[in-house]
Amino acid sequence: MPNPTAAMLVIGDEILSGRTRDANMHHLAVELAGVGIDLKEVRIVSDDHDAIVAAVNALRAARDTVFTSGGIGPTHDDITADAIAAAFGAHIDVRDDARAILQAHYDRNGTELNEARLRMARIPDGADLIDNPVSAAPGFTMENVHVMAGVPAIFAAMVATILPTLTGGAPLQSRAVRIEMPEGDIAGPLNALAKRFPDLTIGSYPFQGQGGSGSNIVLRGHDASLIDAAASELIAELGGIPA
Amino acid sequence: MPNPTAAMLVIGDEILSGRTRDANMHHLAVELAGVGIDLKEVRIVSDDHDAIVAAVNALRAARDTVFTSGGIGPTHDDITADAIAAAFGAHIDVRDDARAILQAHYDRNGTELNEARLRMARIPDGADLIDNPVSAAPGFTMENVHVMAGVPAIFAAMVATILPTLTGGAPLQSRAVRIEMPEGDIAGPLNALAKRFPDLTIGSYPFQGQGGSGSNIVLRGHDASLIDAAASELIAELGGIPA
Q1: Count of alpha carbons within 13 Å of B173, Cβ hemisphere only?
Q2: Which of A97, B2, B54, B133 is deepest in the core (most CB within 10 A)?
Q3: Do A13 and A77 contact (CB within 8 A), yes or no?
Q4: Residue A233 CB partners (closer than 8 Å, separation 6+)
Q5: Which residues contact B92 (CB under 8 A, 6 or more apart)?
Q6: B209 Cβ contact partners less than 8 Å away, ≥ 6 residues apart
Q7: Inter-axis angle of helices B183-196 and B224-238, to 10 degrees?
């Protein structure tokens, strides 16, 4: 049975303008690989209502699960929750359960739950809240879309909450073999290897080393014995070194 | 006049599996901001023919310019050139001009231009070649789509070749102001500021500092005097510090 598939939507002008390097995508990619959910596509869009709505609707139709990051804070540029509601045609307003979580948090800190902070309690009808152990303001799950914060520590905490609730597949396993020959010299044998192991994904990632150019060959798949067999062939045939 | 728009398509299983962190997106974002081309969307797809074709066709219709990275090497997993040809309905085969470039390069190095390396001379009919000063194998431009290598040094060299040929707009300018107050306390005034300066994009990026939480407010736009005026208001009204 093929693994479940996922997509990610990163929302934020700061990534597209080059101000910030996104860190959440890499984190999610590693976590999903570990539980056997295949991340098939990532989109990064700006803080633009229509762009978010279109991307969410395309991705949730195409993949089993969608993860979003960014745009659920208290400021005017945080428009993700309303865009998700629009994508689902759902009503959205301040919800009592989310408000209670924020109220308790700010009461503990002696901080006012003002109008801006109350924006973080805007949750679409029908969504389930995702716990935020860092700063209380919840994410939410709307059908197969998990809406999470962009701040990396909070994003990671929310992913840790969500992942155990999803049905994964066979975890993606991989082995790398380093070959001290240019890609162009090994491409033929590598192509033949890929044909002998159709259930593996075999990637070639060239590098420039001190002794000239080489390539890291990464064997990926769900069956460790197949990966080991392919690695052994690479090592025997092309003088590869386990990397 | 609004700035020209761009999209980027990153092609590569290695990014989606979490093995590699993409560096090209951030590089391109910074370069485009400098010449006044607005990067509106990035997609990352796997080494999958249909996924590449669909993404290229969606992006080239929606944006003025599209940049792709990855998948133009000599190995079996390098399928980008053929996918681009399919997206345009163009014929593709080894082209004499690209073959001559490779032949000259490998002759200089005393390396055989074998069948695998010849794959890198597969260029769609009608495309213009993009010079590769690092390892010779060219990228190419097909209408508004620039197809470039994934290796960061080569990608950067190709971007440097392409950018001067594009018509840019007003370079995106920005200033950051650091405010030592939680986002929830400044969101109201910030929203009012955004309404007073509709031509600016005002982003709020929270951080946790030693003295508690604060936020970096980034003012972006094409008119430096507007940005300076908004920054002065932020500094006067909320005690911000130029960051």
Answers
A1: 11
A2: B54
A3: yes
A4: A193, A196
A5: B81, B82, B85, B122, B123, B124, B125
A6: B180
A7: 140
Query: Which of B27, B53, B75 should one mutate to test binding to chain A, selecting the residue with the greatest count of A CBs within 10 A?
Result: B75
pLDDT at B169 over 90: no
Task: Please report the sign of the dihedral spanned by the C-alpha atoms of residue B173, residue B179, residue B184, residue B187.
Answer: negative
Instruction: Locate A3 and state its tokens.
Output: 């693994």
Q: What is the dihedral of CA B51, B54, B56, B60, to 10 degrees?
A: -160
Report the distance separating Cα B81 and Cα B146, nearest Å: 11
Tokens 């990026």, residue? B205
CA-nearest of B17, B8, B87 to B47 is: B17
Residue B206 has a pLDDT of: 84
Which residue segments constitute the domains of chain A, with CATH numbers given? 5-165 (3.40.980.10), 173-242 (3.30.70.260)
- Exposed / middle / buried, residue A96 (Cβ in 10 Å: 0-12, 13-18, 19+): exposed
State the Cα–Cα distance between residues A101 and A118, nearest whole angstrom.
11
- pLDDT tens-digit readout, B216-233: 999 998 899 999 999 999
**Structure ipTM:** 0.90
In this complex, do A15 and B29 lie within 8 Å of one another by their Cβ atoms? Answer: yes
Q: Is the alpha carbon torsion for A82, A84, A87, A93 positive or negative? A: negative
Nearest to B39 among A16, A190, A202 (CB): A16
pLDDT (tens digit per residue) in A206-243: 887 667 788 899 999 889 999 999 999 999 999 888 88
d(CA A152, CA B179): 20
B25 by Cβ neighbours in 10 Å (0-12 / 13-18 / 19+) ranks as buried
Judging by DSSP bridges, how do beta strands B212-221 and B201-209 pair with one another?
A: antiparallel
Chain B residues with CB under 8 Å of A220 CB are 13, 17
Is residue A161 within 8 angstroms of chain B, CB to CB? Answer: no
Rg (CA), chain A: 22
